[in-house]
Amino acid sequence: xxxPSSSSAVSWKCPDCGRRVPSKLPTCRCGRTLDAGEAARLAxxxxxxxxxxxxxxxxxxxxxxxxxxxAFAAIGGAVYWMNARREPAVNPSEIAIPIGDDPDxxxxxxxxxxxxxxxxxxxxxxxxxxLLVPAATPAAVPMPAxxPMPAxxxxxxxxxxxxxxxxVRVETGQGxxxxxxxxxxxxxxxxxxxGSNLLVTIRRQDGNTQSARVETTAPELDIAVLRIPSADxxxxxxxxxxxxxxxxxxxxxxxxxxxGLQNTVTRGIVSAVRQVGTLTLVQxxxxxxxxxxxxxxxxxxxxxxxxxxxxxxxAVAQGLSFAVAIDHAQAVLAGQRPxxxxxxxxxxxxxxxNAQSSSSDSDTRRSRGTQIYQETIGTIARRADQLDGHWIxxxxxxxxxxxxxxxxxxxxxxxxxRAMPGxxxxxxxxIFTDVRRVADAIRSEVIAAEEAARQADVYPGMRRDVLRTxxxxxxxxxx
Length: 479
Description:
18 strands, alpha+beta, six-stranded antiparallel beta barrel
């Protein structure tokens, strides 16, 4: 008997050779022929249990394959859908945030990863299922704060109020000027402020006074160094800068006691920094008046760039003042002095100005007036030298007392009301009258020479230098 199969409806299996023979052919190629009963069964639509089971198995396999395919398709679609809706993965240490006004312009800003993110980055145990979930949207991260801008310079009021306690009024028997502390025990001023005095009085901002010793003088620079015996560690001082760094147009301030008015400040600009021989001068249009001499010329930073030394009078020029560069004062404090300097800052400047000025009527008149003034004062000085000898004799023989104050020539005390509190001997009346007559004549001649020089436009500083050279420097000539 042939072996029923699932394909018996279309073929039969030869029991002799095992070939499959189409059901329409009753004979196999090997010669085996179906008998009548076998042919009838082959033609009948009978279904064998083995064939049904096989057919059922084939159907189950096909259904399983289709189910698996559909399952993978469903999983793939779900993953695609989830990825399409999920935010892009974010590196916990870098976050892209918009910069400026363009929302498409992003930069990555680093930040420390939170502890939870670090733990999540660790590999999970084999027995722990890993769930893929959409990443949470990161919180907004602020931009890093920009570095702080440098503090702007203090206001003008702050600079002045901080510097003023270091500025003092310098008083002598002949007049007053200004000075300023550079160390708790050291003050800078001008030589023409202290004159020939060895001791001077300094008056602070609060009115307190103290004696100071004239330690060093540099007439060629018009710089004097004062020392006070008991220094106060809390004494405000001024920082020293450099005139070489000054620029034309920069703001400057002059502090001092013009005309005795202490705690006064004037403001201007640097007009120029001039090199006159070995001397450096800062030219400024800040108002400089008698009494400002020796005070500081401050830059906007509060550093001293010069020592105010002279101002040209309004009869000659407007807004023309000068300060000796503070660099020279630093050299004097360090024990260094110019080796080839002559004259004073004023005479040096006058020589430079005269050499560079064009010849004109006014220049000729000034030059001639200066020459006459020098000759006149020289003649008067010789008469004053003679009077010095008569004064010594008079004081020794006829005056019982002392002379109060310091004078270039002691007989200048004759014109000071309280300078001679002693008594003149009654037997010396004629001698005293003679001394007084000669002194008054000298005074009248000096005043007349001063007026003639003024009308000839001789510079005030030049006249002052001539008087000082001849030991006739006295504040009472203008009274």
